[in-house]
Design brief:
single chain, Immunoglobulin-like, 5-stranded mixed sheet, 9 helices, elongated, disordered N terminus
């Protein structure tokens, strides 16, 4: 479902010093003696091996050089590694369990304290979501399963909303930490949080000029600004299920939910019942929905029939459009769609006021607008 390439980064430790040469001294529990451990430099597009050594009595040591702060990977295998950031001249003390390098501890730079704070925020979210998952698992197969699931969805949305506020507070209170490049990922996509990503690269680019990670974030922000919250939604004209062209601008003066989906998209189809419910409730108050299907007749000859069948099966009574070109549809390029479901909430003046609002979060936004 996802077409985005993600680099999963768990915990980073950063620093600054004057000498270009840096050192990492490591201690591992449950390590196999004489096994190899590697240090690799990570760029936005590549991974380069920097150093390697054998573990000796649970310890290892790496040397590296870097002209600026950068991300590195300490790894025992492609599946077992820790991602960490070093500046030139850092001396880092690294400790971890060899079975799970990602859960490491490190000291030696000013950024470590910020890294620890961020990790604690992430851990709290995981503990809370794990608790909800356990509650649901216990309800499976009982008469209470559906009721429990609905309750958990609401609690889960609230947890994510609170987590986002905690991350925003972390960024605001630590504006020049390089770790904010990772904190931003906890907020969600760049397009959905463009103001905070702008804040991150603006605060960092003067401290670390010409840094590839910062330049990469900046480039992505600038390219996505045209469909960010606060921007005027780009107009389009696409044929509906009957072959008649329909334009977004024809709904100016109306609150519009733009919903990118497809008949084959399981998460989209699972969301549809709630959207149907919201449409019934808010259509009389002024809400309109435009569904844009990414079914693809260039890959599947029956794509149009499957699209129309899904509309009927799910009871989608709102406007339905499709270019039947999947992710290669011009509208996808215009709106930067790389995964579905994706939504845009647009106000009466054509301004985007929300992106990827779903479930309770979407309902609360509609309550704010209409009730």
């Amino acid at each position: 479902m996802m077409r985005l390439f993600f680099i999963s980064i768990a915990i980073f430790t950063l620093a600054s010093c004057t000498d270009d040469r840096g050192t990492i001294n490591g201690t591992l529990t449950n390590a196999e003696n004489d096994s190899w451990i590697y240090l690799e430099k990570i760029s936005p597009t590549d991974v380069i091996k920097v150093d390697s050594c054998k573990i000796d009595n649970s310890t290892f040591s790496f040397n590296y050089s870097s002209d600026s702060i950068n991300f590195f990977r300490i790894s025992l295998s492609n599946e077992n590694y820790a991602l960490i950031a070093f500046n030139k001249g850092d001396t880092i003390e690294f400790k971890a369990n060899a079975t799970t390098l990602v859960d490491y501890e490190a000291i030696g730079s000013d950024e470590v304290e910020g890294n620890t704070l961020l990790l604690n925020i992430i851990r709290r979210l995981k503990q809370n979501t794990d608790s909800l998952s356990l509650i649901y698992q216990k309800s499976i197969g009982t008469d209470e399963e559906e009721l429990v699931l609905n309750s958990i969805r609401i609690q889960y949305d609230e947890l994510l909303e609170n987590h986002k506020k905690n991350i925003e507070q972390f960024i605001d209170e630590n504006p020049t930490l390089f770790i904010n490049l990772i904190a931003g990922q906890q907020l969600g996509s760049i397009a959905d949080n463009i103001n905070y990503y702008k804040k991150i690269y603006t605060n960092l680019e003067s401290k670390y000029p010409n840094n590839l990670w910062i330049e990469n974030i900046k480039e992505n922000v600038l390219s996505l600004e045209k469909t960010a919250v606060g921007a005027i939604a780009p107009d389009f004209s696409i044929k509906d299920e009957n072959g008649k062209p329909f334009s977004l601008s024809s709904l100016r003066g109306t609150v519009v939910l733009l919903d990118f989906w497809a008949s084959w998209c399981v998460p989209c189809r699972k969301e549809n019942p709630m959207v149907v419910e919201l449409y019934k409730e808010y259509k009389p108050k002024g809400l309109e929905i435009i569904g844009i299907s990414l079914d693809d007749s260039t890959r599947n000859e029956s794509a149009k029939n499957e699209w129309l069948k899904a509309i009927n099966q799910d009871g989608l009574k709102w406007i339905q459009l499709s270019e039947l070109q999947g992710f290669e549809s011009p509208i996808c390029k215009e709106y930067g769609i790389e995964s579905i479901p994706s939504t845009f909430l647009i106000d009466e003046d054509g301004v985007i006021i929300g992106r990827n609002l779903r479930g309770t979060v979407l309902r609360n936004k509609l309550i704010e607008i209409f009730d």
